[in-house]
Specification:
The protein is an alpha+beta fold. It folds into two domains: 11-201, no CATH class; 208-365, no CATH class. The protein has helices spanning 11-19, 42-70, 82-97, 113-116, 124-136, 167-181, 208-215, 221-236, 265-270, 297-300, 305-313, 318-322, 345-355, 358-365, and strands at 99-100, 107-109, 140-142, 157-160, 240-246, 248-254, 272-279, 283-288, 333-336.
């Protein structure tokens, strides 16, 4: 998640983007990975995760409404998201390294690598800003002098969240998952924790349809229904679906039926025919990497004019093909996932059907 491009997105816009990545509905009952049993019992963890999710919603709402006052503008375009990476790293340090007090309503952290390492990931100048912002969101840090001329992180950070102390259990579980259970690489200023991806805690793998529903929940209901319909249609045809987080969040569909070796999600993504994408630059979109249009030009000729123009333009590097600034054209032909896509839903199915490998398409109509 970055600002994409030369113009810097306001922190409020970044916050709106990130808020949509938080699951709208976390189930009250699901089996947890047994490795979490040392943190707390399952019920406490599940309740704590929901409390952590609610905290994140408040955090992003605060940034949306008060971000300009609370957060210093980034000096370089594209670095606005660094603040959220700092916040995430501090929360991970507190949750992963913090030890619960006997009463359970406080975490005692003596090891905050992001702040106290010889080369800390979070510069001292930003540590005060981040802790102060977290106090605006409900945390309390005993012994921290925010008014000192030279800010210094205390040797032991006492952390409480009086609004809902059970949040500390959820934070510990999610921080552990962020450090030990995630499948994606962790970066220096990583803000993955702020997604509240509770699925990392589950004993069983989550079905991709449930993940898709989570990602698309902010869309209009009819658009969500179209997204789900397309997903089911092409999974039934034999395509493989993967979620990748490569700057943009992408749910990609590829034909790997002829691959004999095991492919990583990144490998499958590279073979994608089309994908649903969510990014700060484009919002929610359907990207189609159409490669067979010459084979069904007569079909395309029946499509509405605006869709024909998009298909005729093709896709690829905007600079090389059209001498235009980069707009992500290499990802595919872009169709925004808004109410307008409903008017061409039948044409999209016909279009995607014609891009399908022939053996899969033939199987689907038999």
């Amino acid at each position: 998640m970055d600002a994409h491009g030369e113009n810097q997105n306001p922190i409020s816009e970044v916050a709106k983007y990130c808020r949509n990545l938080i699951p709208a509905n976390i189930p009250e009952l699901y089996a947890l990975n047994p490795i979490l049993k040392n943190i707390a019992d399952e019920e406490q963890i599940r309740i704590g995760v929901i409390a952590f999710r609610d905290f994140l919603l408040d955090l992003f709402d605060r940034l949306i409404s008060h971000g300009r006052q609370d957060v210093k503008p980034a000096k370089k375009a594209g670095n606005q998201n660094k603040f959220l990476g700092y916040i995430s790293n501090i929360l991970v340090d507190i949750g992963y390294h913090g030890k619960p007090s006997k009463s359970g309503d406080m975490l005692l952290a003596t090891n905050l690598p992001s702040c106290t390492a010889s080369k800390p990931a979070i510069p001292v100048s930003a540590q005060r800003e981040c802790l102060l912002f977290l106090t605006y969101c409900g945390f309390y840090f005993a012994g921290v002098d925010f008014d000192a001329k030279a800010f210094k992180m205390p040797e032991m950070l006492e952390v409480t969240y009086t609004k809902s102390p059970i949040l500390l259990v959820g934070l510990r579980a999610m921080a552990f998952a962020d450090m030990e259970l995630r499948t994606t690489r962790r970066f220096k200023n990583d803000n993955y924790l702020l997604r509240c991806d509770y699925r990392l805690l589950k004993a069983e793998k989550t079905d991709m349809l449930d993940i898709l529903k989570d990602y698309m929940h902010p869309l209009p209901v009819k658009v969500q229904e179209l997204v789900i319909k397309l997903h089911k249609r092409y999974i039934d045809m034999g395509l493989t679906c993967v979620l990748t987080i490569l700057g943009d969040d992408c749910i990609a569909y590829a034909n790997i039926s002829k691959n004999r070796k095991k492919l990583s999600p990144r490998d499958i993504y590279q073979e994608r025919i089309w994908a649903f994408s969510y990014s700060l630059k484009h919002g929610y979109c359907l990207f189609v990497r159409a490669k067979k249009t010459q084979e069904y030009a007569d079909v395309i000729a029946t499509f509405p004019l605006h869709l024909r123009k998009k298909i005729d333009k093709g896709y690829g590097c905007d600079r090389k093909l059209h001498n235009e600034p980069c707009r992500g054209g290499c990802q595919g032909i872009c169709l925004p996932l808004d109410d307008g896509i409903l008017d061409i839903s039948s044409e999209i199915e016909i279009w995607l059907d014609n891009e399908m490998p022939k053996q899969l398409h033939m199987c689907s109509v038999m």
